[in-house]
Amino acid sequence: MAVTAESLKELEKKQAWWWIAEKKRSRRLDYLRKAVWKKGAIGGLYPAGLIVDLERPVLQTEKARELESSADPYVIKFAKILAHVLDNKTIFITDHSQLVGYLGSTPNTITWDPSLASILNHEVINDPQCLPEPLDDSLRTIKDIVNYWAGKSDLDKILPYMDLDDSMKILSGAIGWGVPLARGGYSGKDYEYIMTGKRAFEDIIAELDRRIDDAYAKAHEPSASKEISNLYDKINNWEAMKITLEAGIRYAKRYARLARIIAENFETDPARREELLKIARTCEHVPAKPPRDLQESLQYDLFIQLFSRNEAIEGAWPARPDYYHGPYYEKDVNVDRVLTEEEALDLVGEFLIRAYEVSQYKPKWSREGLQGIEGTWVWTLGGVKPDGSDACNGMTIALLKAARLVRVSNPTFAFRWHPKVSDEVMRECFECIRQGLGYPSMRNDPVLVANAMHWHGHPIEEARTWVHQACMSPAPTTKHGFQPMRMANATANTAKIIEYVFTSGYDNIVNMQIGAETPPVETFKSYEEFFQAWVTQMKHVFSLVVRPVNRGRMLAPTLTPRPFLSAVSERSVESGLDVNDPSISRGNAWITAFTWVENIDSLAAVKKLVFDEKKYTLAELKEALANNWEGREEMRLDFVRNAPKWGNDDDYVDSIMLDCLREAAKFSRELKCPSGNSWPILPENVSGNIHYANVVGALPNGRRLGDALYDGGISPGPGLDKKGPTAVLNSCAKIDHITHGRAFLLNQRLSPTQMAGEKGYQLCKAYMKTWADLGIDHVQFNCVSDETLRAAQRDPEKYPELIVRVAGYSAHFVDISRKTQDNIIQRTVQGLA
Amino acid sequence: MPTCKECKKFFPLEEDPKKGDCVQRVVDPRQAFYQAKPVEADRNAASCPSFEKR
Ligand code: SF4
Question: Hey, are the CB atoms on A92 and B11 less than 8 Å from each other?
Fold first, then answer.
């Protein structure tokens, strides 16, 4: 079909946004978008055609063997291994691309770091479909690698120093997920140090040299002290940082050389030759020196992200691309006019694609929990500058436009809404939502800035730099405010709290005593007593997920250092301490509370049907739950239908939400991170509501073992919000979004028909105004009709690019499990009045 | 015995001609690209299926 205004209108009427994108984008973007190998796992398995890259683990292992007899301290050896990988890995430049760099040796590879955890290595060797052919050769190589790293990997080294009891409970998979590894989780970055154009790698190397020289001189003065002893460690850390930065510069120069070789020996098209020479000039300049234009700025950022992922397995991508690349966009497009808007869109769109293709081999629990994507790469847009003025710029709009053209499911955006955002920018956000991307999610900036100050004491100027450290949690990008690692296992499957009240803490799914040994539930005489048991279980569960993370963080600087991340962090360059050293961090920890709202609806059901109406006894309910409601369907339906449910502006149940949050918030202040700061909770799910369906037993809200759990952090249960969107907002607004927790995820579904045209925008704007006025910190939308979703279930091959918002992330609808698909369809479509 | 330096795909480093890159064109099911892998000039190329005499 030729691209005419009529044909586009026709497609728009059908809401076939993915075909519209294909027709509207440039030939380059179309090629690059179709060229990318999708990496997100489907049903826990990587898509066909992907292979585990063995080049990197072979390089790591050969260098580690070579260094075994060297006298270098561990941090230097680690840096040298990283440098060896960057110096020797295969690199490639895709046709039509302008940005370069990938973790693996070919575009269809998933990289594997064998130095992280033996349990991960065993998953690789048992992988059913991604091992390269010939299989016998691969297995021989993998076996050698797995054997070498046994006992030497990070987790193997850390576990003996952890509390065995806590570790076993975490590893049971019932209560939380993840492992307390400082090289496996969500790494914040000190963007204010590295991305503001004031310095780049050569400047930092010069600074490191100065510090090493000074320290060396001081260490050899006629004196002796603890400080002098500490200098030896600092010198090692600085040396290691320097090794990684120098390797990064060499790595970029390898791309420059390849681009020149292609231009001078193979390329016949003069325009492409010129592009290749521009790539060469770019990679000769960055990351050694600060960027001078948009292409260099994007390339510089991409290199930093890739180096960091060469050093650690990063499940998130905290970023603020409009803020940090915006000045280069403005200069190139509006001041110097060396790029047209379309040319800039090509670069921005490709930047999204380069991020989309990044992949690291992850454990199965993580792949199942993050269906269809590689990690929670939620990029932050909008917001304010440190002085409080609007931070939106031309790059904000370019990113929102590019997202609609390339329609990747990862990264997604979250938009920091504030009262000064222009109508032009809001319309661009709305277009993305209306076109079914599921992003940007909307964040209430004034509320979240205040929240960052309340919970972690970030000064206002620092709080205003915040980015999403993963799906939801704000973290500053400043010297002391950024958090270098948030370990995934500070994630609690909180539906277990209410479950354990009925089992006195015994977990019948994994057959272990995990919760607190509270008295038998049938002995509670009042709702207050029952609720106190819930509080006890809550404290027990939260402590359990937090302690190993604290311990892992304390051990990190010596056992699992991060010299590259340290090298791009002002506090480490200045102090000579590893970036994970808690003494140089203000602390920005949070507990992700999966499956939270089940607690509220369950407590309300018990209060009403057991204590108020006395229709059932706790003993009866305990037995019904133990039997998964079998033979008690009528009773179960009573608990579903006749107990009040969260999200209907009903104070009976909404006050229970507040009681639970107040108790959790109080306890958050008692839980301390190694930097001495608090551990507030953050209710949300990724697709934990599906992952945990078979891990959480029957609950008093009428849920059976195996049923999907609720999808949001404070979203009502699917289909249980009967009173419309205002009632949902009113319930959510009863929560204090500053003091009750770190953030609260709210999913909403909107009707695409209602969102059409100017009227749709005005409706959405009015909804957003109510949302903002009520002080709610988050909301995200699915705007795809049931009809389209059901059609995609029937004919998935016709809807390969259909995107939906799952939880804190978006995914292609066809890449998520049937259960998750059904769960999204079940969510109530809110008609806006 | 043929070596990499006799191969069309070998591009020596200016600063150290004993080392270089093996640069090849690859077309996979989704995309086409050029790849470079560090190799030694004197590496035995006898068993390399991609060897092309200069
Ligand atoms: S193709 Fe083979 S022989 Fe030629 S440079 Fe590459 S590795 Fe050496």
Answer: no
Amino acid at A661: L
How many Å apart are CA A717 and CA A828, to the nearest integer? 9
Please give the distance, rounded to the nearest whole angstrom, from the Cα atom of residue A135 to the centre of ligand 1: 24
Tell whether the model's pLDDT for residue A576 goes beyond 50: yes
Give the mean pLDDT of A105-117: 97
Range of the domain at B11: 4-40
pLDDT band for A22, please (50, 70, 90 cuts). very high
Element (H, E) at B35: strand B32-40
Comparing A790 with A456, the larger pLDDT belongs to: A456
pLDDT digits (tens, 9 = 90+) for A484-497: 998 777 899 999 99
Residue A32 host element (H or E): helix A27-35
Split into its structural domains, chain B has a count of: 1
Find tokens 């800039």 and name the residue: A344
Does residue A666 have a pLDDT over 90? yes
Give the distance from residue B21's alpha carbon to the nearest chain A alpha carbon, in angstroms: 9
How far is the centre of ligand 1, averaged over its atoms, from the C-alpha of B8 (Å)? 8
pLDDT of residue A724: 85
Cα A136 to Cα A142: distance, rounded to the nearest angstrom: 10
A237-247 burial, b if ≥16 CB within 10 A, otherwise e?
bbbbbbbbbbb
For the stretch A723-735, pLDDT in tens is 888 899 999 999 9
With an 8 Å Cβ cutoff, are B23 and A37 in contact?
Answer: no
Tell me what the mean pLDDT of segment A741-764 comes to. Answer: 88
ipTM of the complex: 0.98
Q: Which residues contact A395 (CB under 8 A, 6 or more apart)?
A: A321, A322, A325, A326, A329, A330, A348
In a domain, B14, yes or no: yes
Confirm if A131 and A139 have CB atoms less than 8 A apart: yes
List strand residue ranges (DSSP E) for A556-695, in order. 591-594, 681-683
Q: Which class for A210: exposed (0-12), middle (13-18), buried (19 or more C-beta within 10 A)?
A: exposed
- Tokens 């952890």 found at: A162
Asked whether residue B29 is assigned to any structural domain, the reply reads yes
> How much is the average pLDDT of A45-60?
95
The 10s digit of each residue's pLDDT in A136-190 is 999 999 999 999 999 999 999 999 999 999 989 988 989 987 788 889 889 999 9
- Report CA(B6)–ligand 1 centroid distance (Å): 9
SS3 per-residue string spanning A508-519: CCCCEECCCCCC
Query: Per the domain annotation, does B17 fall within a domain?
Result: yes
Q: How far apart are CA A622 and CA A606, in angstroms?
A: 11
Which residues of chain A are at the B interface, by a Cβ-Cβ cutoff of 8 Å?
Answer: 31, 34-37, 49, 87-88, 90-95, 105-108, 254, 257-258, 261-262, 265-266
**What fold does the segment set A198-290 form as a domain?**
Topoisomerase I; Chain A, domain 4 (1.10.132)
- Tell me the two tokens of residue A477: 């990008």
Q: Enumerate residues 6+ apart whose C-beta is below 8 A from A637.
A: A702
Cis amide prior to A674 (ω within 30 degrees): no
User: Would you call A93 and B34 a contact, using CB atoms and an 8 Å cutoff?
Assistant: yes
**pLDDT-derived band of residue A1, with 50, 70 and 90 as boundaries?**
very low
- Model confidence pLDDT, tens digit, residues A668-703: 999 999 999 999 999 998 777 778 889 999 999 999
Q: What is the mean pLDDT of chain A?
A: 94
Q: How many angstroms separate the CA atoms of A717 and A495, rounded?
A: 13
- The C-alpha atoms of residue A149 and residue A152 are separated, in whole angstroms, by 5
Q: Is residue B46 part of a domain?
A: no
According to the model, what pLDDT value does residue B39 have? 98
Both tokens of residue A185?
A: 């989780």
Ligand 1 shell residues, CB under 6 Å:
B 4, 7, 9-10, 22, 39, 43, 45, 48, 50-51
Q: Which residues of B touch A95 (CB under 8 A)?
A: 31-33
What is d(CA A129, CA A135) in angstroms, rounded to the nearest whole number? 10
